[in-house]
Specification:
Elements lengths: L8 E2 L2 E6 L2 E5 L1 H10 L29 H16 L1
Antiparallel strand pairs: 1-2, 2-3
């Protein structure tokens, strides 16, 4: 492994080594996800859904592209699971 150089990025984890220890972060992976789904300018919120809205089976809103939605949720699950 030493022939490959110092480990800096592995499976979505940034690795920073210094005299105080080894530190892991996912900043780069998160920025890639936000860019991929066009959410770089999104603002953080405490509640993930609009409060007070009613849901029904007869919703008239635009259809969601299911494969894109599944990939997005999978990326977020990986982010929270690592």
């Amino acid at each position: 492994m030493s022939l490959l150089g110092e480990l800096t990025y592995f499976l979505g984890l940034q690795v920073q080594q210094n005299k105080d220890g080894i530190f892991l972060s996912q900043t780069k992976y998160l920025k890639q996800i936000l860019k991929k789904y066009g959410m770089e300018e999104s603002k953080p919120v405490c509640t993930l859904m609009v409060t007070g809205c009613s849901l029904s089976a007869n919703d008239e809103s635009a259809a969601i592209h299911q494969p894109t939605y599944k990939f997005m949720i999978g990326s977020l699950l990986y982010l929270t699971g690592t």
